[in-house]
Amino acid sequence: AVQNILRGMGALSAGELAGERMAVPYESKEQEDEHSCFSDNTLADIVGNARGIRLAYTADYEGVDGTSLSEVVAKLAPEVDADLRKQLDNNVAAAEALPAPFDQVIVGDDEHPGRAELLALVEDLQDQGTAIAALASSLGLEISIEI
Fold first, then answer.
1. What is the rounded CA–CA span in Å between residue 72 and residue 91?
2. Do the Cβ atoms of 145 and 15 come closer than 8 Å?
3. 0.85 exceeded by the pTM?
């Protein structure tokens, strides 16, 4: 179960969210490559995905009690847990700070602040995926993530 949780977190961080949902439209500058090109809901999707990755680790679900993966890791490797929680929190905050509308961010020039923020978040989510894979490895688990 832990392997599946970490695989899902890592794959969504590095491959799906950072790669398919953000890097592809960043590179192509095509609105058709935007994740929610018809509903114009891409920013909400990005924020929701970043929050979901964090929730899978912290289990901070309202009305739900139990031991989170974060609590287990904190007992085994407190620094690893603290570092990953910081990455998760920072990436959620960065996603929430992306300017709207997304389709205008991707078509801007590379010096546009929103476009720079988007690229930084792509790179940070890829790093987060790598950190999740390293955590899995330190627990004796093997996961693959695609960047």
1. 22
2. yes
3. yes
Q: Which amino acid is present at 53?
A: I
Place of tokens 């389709």: 103
Q: Are 36 and 47 in contact (CB under 8 A)?
A: no
123-137 pLDDT, tens digit per residue, is 999 999 999 999 999
Find where tokens 């899995």 sit. 136
* Rounded-to-integer distance, Cα 125 and Cα 46, Å: 11
**How far, in Å, CA of 143 to CA of 137, rounded?**
8
Question: Are residues 98 and 117 in contact, defined by beta-carbon separation less than 8 angstroms?
Answer: yes
Token pair of 100 as six digits: 């709207």
In terms of C-beta density within 10 A (0-12 exposed, 13-18 middle, 19 or more buried), how is residue 107 classed?
middle
Contact assessment for residue 14 and residue 146, using Cβ atoms and an 8 Å cutoff: yes
Please give the distance of CA 85 from its chain centroid, rounded to a whole number: 12
Residue found under tokens 């680790």: 57
